[in-house]
TrEMBL record:
InterPro entries (UniProt xref): ATP-dep_Glu-Cys_Ligase-2, CP_ATPgrasp_2, UCP005522
Alphabetized PANTHER family for the sequence: BLR5612 PROTEIN, SLL1039 PROTEIN
Stated name of the protein: Putative circularly permuted ATP-grasp superfamily protein
Coiled coil residues, start to end: none
Annotated ranges, domain Circularly permuted ATP-grasp type: 77-454
Length: 478
């Protein structure tokens, strides 16, 4: 998610902190300088038409027109140099490796808690901790097969991890479709750059999923993608990915469990399923184990999972690792399991559950961004510099009543990227969500990821549910 309004001048990824052009942007800047606003407006209209024809939508719950909404797309790409990406990729691989080690530990021996590094109550009282997973050894000991790590930049050399998405990270379909649209609209720009491809992501994802199949699965495991159904806000992505992967898109009612083995119903009769890429939250997976009123999952799925006859990606219970309070311990988590210094920094974080931090946060609310530990989508936040006294006072009462539910961070001036808006080309704040695929054989990271852009002037909230848009992300080959 994005964070509050900047307190210092933001670093611009094309021009830096002055008017010079940064490495990697030379060709794009020259092209923009020679392109009229009319042509850019025409290309933007073409892009919107293409997205409508593709059927790309994003629903916002509670809004009547949600099914018709397109995520705004900015036609000016965001550029990352090859050396910058090499650094990011190393840090991303390290981060997800530590997340997997942490999850394996908290559901088994709990060494990091015994060592006094992460408080026990932060794990065991976490709403996403699943006691059903305790003592269960997963095939290949991998919990987060698909990780979406949100990255922000504040200067030429500093990238921060804003949050870890270890449950069901979304957005990769927009990364792929953004690239396809840009290649159609700007073949001349592509011809002048050596841009790392992203279209191999479906192959990388399928290889990752098959690699984590149970050891009893056949040589070519059967993969299915489990969706909550067409009323889900990300249903477009579910159907898109199933098509790209060449696997069946199933709902809970399409699955059944016999003798602790999962099958899907087909026109040719039941077919065994070895790996389920689930885009369904833990609570709804199995009404026999979690919410008994769930009509979205498959009864008996957890029994098959415990029996080791099916793999779920991501694993059940991974939400413990993307809790924002646990996030604050990630530097220590990396050091504990890997014996290494973190390559990518955390944003400095105040844990309101600690008395000294709570006192500081209450005294400096006008300077900080305060978030719910389990919040997402940019909701449930206080952006101190952009708030009035009445709002801060109300939030202070929330903090005092339930301090364990909040963390706070300083306001960062996120980097900006040139963006085509109604007034012309202007800087807008961006973040980046790369997707890290961890299989039994290797880690795969497609160069780039989903760049999200805060289209409103001065805003740093990039979430599509709150008016943000997306950009194509170009990683330049060396």
């Amino acid at each position: 998610m994005g964070i509050g309004a900047p307190m210092v001048v933001a670093f611009d990824e094309m021009s830096g902190t002055d008017t010079a052009c940064r490495p990697g942007y030379e060709v794009l800047k020259r092209w923009l300088d020679g392109t009229t606003p009319e042509l850019l407006g025409h290309r933007r209209a073409e892009a919107e038409l293409l997205f409508r024809r593709m059927g790309i939508t994003f629903a916002v719950y509670g809004e009547a027109e949600a099914e018709e909404r397109l995520i705004p797309f900015d036609i000016i790409p965001r550029i990352i140099t090859g050396s910058e990406w090499t650094h990011l990729a190393r840090g991303l691989e390290q981060r997800v490796k530590a997340l997997n080690a942490f999850l394996s530990d908290v559901y088994s021996r709990g060494e990091i808690m015994k060592a006094g590094i992460v408080p026990e109550d932060l794990v065991y009282r976490n709403p996403y901790y699943r006691p059903e997973m305790a003592g269960l050894r997963l095939p290949h000991d991998i919990y987060v097969m698909i990780g979406g790590i949100d990255i922000v930049r504040v200067d030429p050399d500093t990238f921060y991890v804003l949050e870890d998405n270890a449950r069901t990270p979304s957005g990769v379909s927009y990364m792929l479709e953004n690239r396809e649209v840009m290649m159609r609209l700007f073949p001349d720009l592509f011809a002048e750059h050596r841009i790392a491809p992203v279209d191999n992501y479906p192959d990388a994802l399928l290889a990752t999923l098959k690699s984590v199949a149970p050891k009893t699965a056949p040589g070519d495991p059967t993969v299915a993608l489990l969706t909550p159904g067409p009323f889900n806000s990300a249903y477009y992505e579910h159907s898109f990915l199933a098509d790209k992967l060449g696997v069946e898109l199933v709902e809970g009612r399409d699955l059944m469990v016999r003798d602790n083995v999962v099958y899907m119903r087909t026109t040719e009769g039941p077919k065994r399923v070895d790996v389920i890429y689930r885009r369904l939250d833990d609570d709804f997976l199995d009404p026999l184990s979690f919410r008994p009123d769930s009509m979205l999952g498959c009864p008996g799925l957890m029994n098959a999972y415990r029996a080791g006859t099916v793999s779920l990606a991501n694993a059940v219970g991974t939400g413990v690792a993307d809790d924002k309070a646990v996030y604050s311990y990630m530097p220590e988590i990396v050091k504990f399991y890997l014996g290494e210094e973190p390559i990518l920094k955390n944003v400095p974080t105040y844990r309101c559950r600690e008395a000294d931090s709570l006192r500081y946060v209450l005294e400096h609310l006008e300077e900080l961004v305060v978030k719910e530990v389990a919040g997402s989508g940019g909701y449930g936040m206080l952006i101190g510099p952009a708030s009035d006294k009445k709002t801060r006072d109300l939030f202070a009462e929330k903090l005092k009543a339930d301090p364990d539910n909040f963390i706070a961070q300083p306001t960062l001036a996120l980097s900006t990227s040139p963006t085509f808006v109604d007034a012309g080309i202007a800087p807008r704040h961006v973040d980046l969500r790369p997707f890290v695929l961890t299989g039994a054989d290797r880690v795969r990271i497609v160069p780039g990821g989903l760049t999200r852009v805060a289209l409103k002037e001065g805003s740093l909230i990039v979430n599509s549910s709150q008016g943000g848009g997306t950009k194509d992300t170009w990683v330049l080959d060396a």
